[in-house]
Design a protein that fits this description.
It is a single chain. The chain contains 4 helices and 8 strands, in the order βββααβαββββα. By secondary structure, it is an alpha+beta fold. It has one domain: Beta Barrel (OB fold (Dihydrolipoamide Acetyltransferase, E2P)), CATH 2.40.50.140. Strands 1, 2, 3, 4, 5, 6, 7 and 8 form an 8-stranded mixed beta sheet that branches. β2 and β3 form a beta hairpin. It starts with 8 loop residues before the first strand and ends in a 13-residue tail after the last helix.
Length: 190
Amino acid sequence: MSTSKAATKVITGKNTIFSYLCVNEPKAPLGGGTPKYSVSLIIPKSDTVTVAKIRAAIEAAYEEGQAKLKGSGRAVPSLGALKTPLRDGDLERAGDDVYKGCWFLNANSVTKPGVVDAALNPIIDPGELYSGIIGRASINFYAFNSNGNKGIACGLNNLQKLSDGTPLGGHSRAELDFAGLDDDDDDFLT
């Protein structure tokens, strides 16, 4: 059964949080390998439209990739038996408030994704891109069968930053650190 590339592509909703954002320079995965651009997308469970699109795209990728998933085996594993990218933040990241009430998935690409702002202007300043920003992501799903691992993976196409968010990972933004201070706040020198 052949599906169209449109069936495996999803544009997330506008309240997706970008975490572990690596779109300025590719990074090699732990243990080595090809450097990749990547992001973890945190999607509120209330965004049922995006979640439904992702589930449908995973199914389409499963249908499209059955020959790859079968490999040299006798049968194609069921979708439920395969590793899939959509994960439950309440279960897998219990205790982390950022993931509470959210789904998440990791997307990556060997090709640098396009990154634009709300007005569709390219974002050139790498300082504008940090874990915690909020926006939309263009992603695609595909089947993989490599070294005995089989499943559905998520590719990263492009990102749209819609607004700043709370920086994740303990990093703060300079403009927030120094906002509200005046020149008389130099008591650290005395």
